[in-house]
Amino acid sequence: MKKLYLVVAITFSLLVQTGFSKTIGLHKDGRSIIPDGLIKTLNDAGWETVILSDADIAKEEKLADLDMLFFTGGWNAYFFPKFEARREIIKFAASGKGVLLTGFRSGYSRTANRSMFPQVGATHNRGNASFVTGVGDSPMAKALSVPVTLGGWDHMTLEIGPQGKVFAECAGDPIGAYGEVYG
User: Fold this and answer.
1) Residue 159 class from Cβ within 10 Å (0-12 exposed, 13-18 middle, 19+ buried)?
2) For residues 156 and 123, is the Cβ–Cβ distance under 8 A?
3) 56-62-66-71 Cα dihedral, nearest 10 degrees
């Protein structure tokens, strides 16, 4: 559990330092963890937060006023998200808005066979090491200015797509990527 909270904290740091817009939808289901501290920190930094259910992310009108979607990961369900939600998330990103997907050793981050944005990156393999380092000069890489340990060995490696840029590595394996999928 400590590992998951650290991943959420690092992810929040990346969000703040990348300078995205100020309204963020946080996906919450029975497998997600959204600590009160995360919401408080986002609100204190000027972000408006909206909690979204599985049903909400399949509805264009629920996403219309958001600037970013944040999927905190956790013990994700294998077939998440369903087709209707995937279509809305891809349309959301195609409109120029931000989507941050994280994962933790299971679910769509490891076993699902349908990558959300393969042109940026797709989960490829599982490796073992503990320190995450920033790569490149993007704001997300700069947020990882010193190696950070996640307190464990498991990490998911990425197959980087043609529009993907690596911002984080673990033991030389790419584990964080970003890119633009619209326009």
Assistant:
1) middle
2) yes
3) 10
Whole-angstrom distance, CA of residue 167 vs CA of residue 139: 9
Could you give the C-alpha distances from 45 to 19, 35, 101, 152, 153, in angstroms and in order?
Answer: 11, 16, 21, 29, 32
pLDDT tens for each residue of 79-123: 567 889 888 998 998 898 988 877 655 444 455 556 777 788 877
Sequence letter at residue 74: G
The model's pTM is: 0.71
Q: 136 and 166 in contact (C-beta within 8 Å)?
A: yes
**What domains, with CATH codes, occur in the chain?**
2-128 (3.40.50)
Token pair of 20, please?
């995205």
Alpha-carbon dihedral sign for residues 113, 30, 40, 36: negative
Question: Which residues make Cβ contacts (< 8 Å) with residue 75, sequence separation at least 6?
Answer: 31, 104, 106, 107
What's the residue count for the chain? Answer: 183
Map residue 181 onto helix, strand or coil: coil
